Amino acid sequence: MPDHHSRPAEATARPHSHGDRRPEAVRAVRAMAAFATESEMYLAATGRDEALHRTDLNGLRVVMSSGDEPVTPRRLSQALQLSAPATSAMLDRLERLGHVERRPHPHDRRSVVVVATDHAHTVGASMFGRVGARMAPVLASRSAGELAVIAQFLEDAAVATGSARADIRTTS
Amino acid sequence: MPDHHSRPAEATARPHSHGDRRPEAVRAVRAMAAFATESEMYLAATGRDEALHRTDLNGLRVVMSSGDEPVTPRRLSQALQLSAPATSAMLDRLERLGHVERRPHPHDRRSVVVVATDHAHTVGASMFGRVGARMAPVLASRSAGELAVIAQFLEDAAVATGSARADIRTTS
DNA sequence: TCGAATAGTTCCACAGTCGAAAGAGTAGGA
DNA sequence: TCCTACTCTTTCGACTGTGGAACTATTCGA
């Protein structure tokens, strides 16, 4: 997605109302784009390192962050915006590599419950640990107050991005 | 990539030195993961909307944000971590859809220079405009001082993520 | 009880990636 | 100046991920 360097970005960053033209806002938007791009490239690189496709990594993320809530193929399909066959194929790959197990659903015999294995947790630890190590000084050098501002902003930005994605469906 | 909900994340967020265990830091890391995930999903959704693969969108981003520097297939290949044939195929797709043009390189006849068309700028404007509209109130509600803190943090976080990606190559 | 709907999997066609190879061009050293 | 090694891009072919259609098993409500 183009950042503020490109023509259309600057021309259309304020489609309905006047956008925020403060230089701090421009810099923040550019920084968000750069961070999003680096995150995507890190995902792709770790995927190559672990022989996992991007979809597989995202699937693991959903399974591993579901808490006590059982994860079914249906739920994964919705969370990842994948078709049913693609979700099945992804689970085939993760199962073959020993990252997940399909278990019978406790009260719906059409379905299965997907659980992550210890191997998956090891891989996740390695991935998160690597970026966590590099991120530690970035976090440590900020005060609690600054981190709270940053966190709140990113939460709001995530919601806004999700709304923009929903806008695509309603305008198509 | 697993966020803090998962076991390995918490267990390994401090691989060498003690990580930042302040609740504000935990919240910030989680917010970064959520924002990165939403950004990736927005990219995928707009890609589907415009019949453009994720690689194509990233390619356009590189072409459109290159300023005066000529973009060659070689440079695109490096920026996107794609093989030469994959870069060629991507340019084929973008050219066929009228988003880019391949022009003769001014002083290296082996190469070409890739330029974005007005059509590409229109698409970029639409994509950025949509998310820009949703992001506008998020930016407008922050002071210049807050935005400066946020931007600096995300720039540092992007560098840290890039370093983590480089770490993959050296430890593999 | 039965029919409609749901859940997941399989089959198959399409599309994106990369290794190998080929052709054209460049650069540097003898 | 010329030749060799290297570079750049594209093409070919094999592999892999996605999604539509179809199938099977199961669930649920009339």
Automatic annotation (TrEMBL), chains A, B:
SMART domains: HTH_MARR. It comes from the Bacteria. Residues 1-23 are annotated as: Disordered. Pfam families: MarR_2. Residues 22-159 form the HTH marR-type domain. This is HTH marR-type domain-containing protein.
